[in-house]
Amino acid sequence: MFATPAYAQSAGGAAAGIGSFIPLILIFAIMYFLLIRPQQKKLKEHKAMVEALRRGDQVVTQGGLIGKVSKVKDDGELEVEIADGVKVRVVRSTIAQVLSKTDPAT
What is the C-alpha separation between 93 and 4, in angstroms, rounded? Predict the structure, then answer.
């Protein structure tokens, strides 16, 4: 007998369809352009830098060691001279920065 207006209204939430997914799609697009894409670009640049290392390049490792590349090995390692006669083996991917490049031999 007592019908309130809330019961008399129809349920319109299910009829929204794709309109409810638009904010989710926009959030994903923003996250892609602000976070994912720049990180992939930075990773690609780092990989190119590491693969271009040669003997004589002065490098900085992620641990903070500064040294000169004395030998480039094929199995993903470098031999870096950090002092006179002191050589350490370093994994290629741990090179953080190349301070100075050597000129290619002609």
Answer: 69
The residue behind tokens 């001279």 is 81
Name residues whose C-beta falls within 8 Å of residue 59's C-beta, 6 or more positions apart in sequence.
53, 66, 67, 68, 69, 78, 80, 95, 96, 97, 98, 99
Give tens-digit pLDDT for 18-69: 788 899 999 999 999 999 999 999 999 999 999 999 999 999 999 999 999 9
DSSP collapsed to 3 states, the chain? CCCCHHHHCCCCHHHCHHHHCHHHHHHHHHHHHHHHHHHHHHHHHHHHHHHCCCCCCEEEECCCCEEEEEEECCCCEEEEEEECCEEEEEEHHHEEEEEECCCCCC
pTM over 0.85: no
